[in-house]
Amino acid sequence: MRTTLSPHQALAAAFRQVRRPAALVAACLAVFSLVAALYGMPAGAIGYALLLCAALLIAAYVMTLARCVRQHQAAAALLRSLPDGLETYPEPDSPANADNRQLLHRMAQLYRNAVFQANSRYEATTAYYTMWSHQVKTPLAAMRLLLAGEDTPLARQLLGELFKTEQYVDMALNYMRLDGGPGGFSFRPCLLRSVAADAARPFGLLFAQKKLRFAIDIPEDISIVTDAQWLSFALEQLLSNAVKYTAQGGVTISWDARAGELCVADTGRGIRPEDLPRVTEFGFTGSSASGDSRPTGIGLYLCGLTLKRLGHTLRLASDPGRGTRAYIRFHQRTLAPQVTDL
Amino acid sequence: MFRLMVVEDDPVISRKVAEFLTLWGYEVRCVEDFNDIMPDFTAFDPHLVLLDLKLPVLGGYHWCREIRRQSSVPILFITSAGDSMTAVTAMSLGADDLIAKPFDLSVLGAKIEALLRRAYAYPAAPATYDLHGIAYDPAAGELRFGAHTAALTRNENRILHTLTAHRGSFVSREKLMTALWETDEYIDDNTLTVNVLRLRRKLGQWGHQDIILTRKGMGYMVKP
User: Fold this and answer.
1) What's the pTM value of the predicted model, to 2 decimals?
2) Distance (Å, rounded) from C-alpha A252 to C-alpha A323?
3) Is B104 in the same domain as B145?
4) Which of B93, B120, B147 is a domain's end point?
5) Is B178 close to A148, i.e. CB distance below 8 A?
6) Which domain holds residue B207?
7) What is the ipTM of this complex?
């Protein structure tokens, strides 16, 4: 699309637009003057008539230029405010402009209808998937209760798979909540250690099955302002990845007091340097995807998005073959209490 | 004996919760007619109500309001939405706590116990178990034999408590480790072995070598 013209360029374009009629009028005047001179009319009379005509023409010329520039400015303003503001567009002054205006209005109407339809379809889809996620939680809860009484290898394997299913449902639900725009967060000071413990709690069986170590190394008194549920969700994504890609060794969540960062470190296979900048992209599955530990490309995306919405930042570092470290920075400042004299 | 009313329309969840709570020594009644739960409520006069948020005829919010009209009995909501908005709505209608599906029965049990204790101010029963002459007190984390006592570490106490709760059947290593995780004790395979070894030694110092039995692939068991 053409970008908006500057006022100077607009004036030049207006000049070009009135050039041809102006030349035509000039040619007509020249013909009249020539014929009048040939019939022996006094030069003074011709000159006087030409002067009057010129004054009239220049006035008309300036008015036309001004109208062209005004029209252009209105169009430029409309271009900036689209799809709204069509009603501010100037009244048509020619049949061609009237046609254009009608076309514009029709296009705007079609556009609004299309957007409305897409929105309502999207809302219906989201509402359905949200409802589905809640619906499926009841049978999942029932399965968990049925398996709770069994302590057999099969029951433990099923519990492991059930846990993954529950996580996928939570991810889908939170994906739709995050997509719903801002809001829905509840910020208050939280003890970081207990948020980390909440996130880690459901992973017990997975760690036990893979015989991995786990530790939380966060001082009891570290408090940050966040939404504990959402931060816990982001940590769960990091833990889920850590335990998925770590065959031996373990996972540690620690607090770096000097940098003011939380670190989730594993001793897993790591991330290739060329993949590292892209792992938080939606659907990115990397170049080394294979086997049953294939990434879904959703977990880290949701983790990054959640942390961004919370006002925290995620940074990843990895030594391929030796492990990955995910750092979360909270960007917190302590504001001095404001004292107001009454 | 505390009476608990379960208002949950999923028959499997309702049955499993009732079984578990009965095992814990509560008298449980599950609502079957969801058109009007109030007659059941009045007849049973429960000490606590477990209320599902989504019910077939009128939702949990409605029944929460209805119950609150005539009683201040503790209400524990069961919901598939564990977000803060649901929690705020539930609490503002007079619910006392909320548990999100899917949940673990042990967590449910702990929540119910805490609510009952708060509402009816009863002291925690000082349960001690008799392990072949050795008294085991999980609340104090101690073993007592005559005039002797031996203190248990947190992990040892949790392991022995889990084993005692399943006395007579084998508890797998994974299940023990998961139970420890739920109390934020992150122990690995080796630590579990070491802890069980130390536990055996503490139990064995008074001449009982075989209170904890081991079977390969099955886990551990406290001798019945």
Assistant:
1) 0.77
2) 11
3) no
4) B120
5) no
6) 129-222
7) 0.79
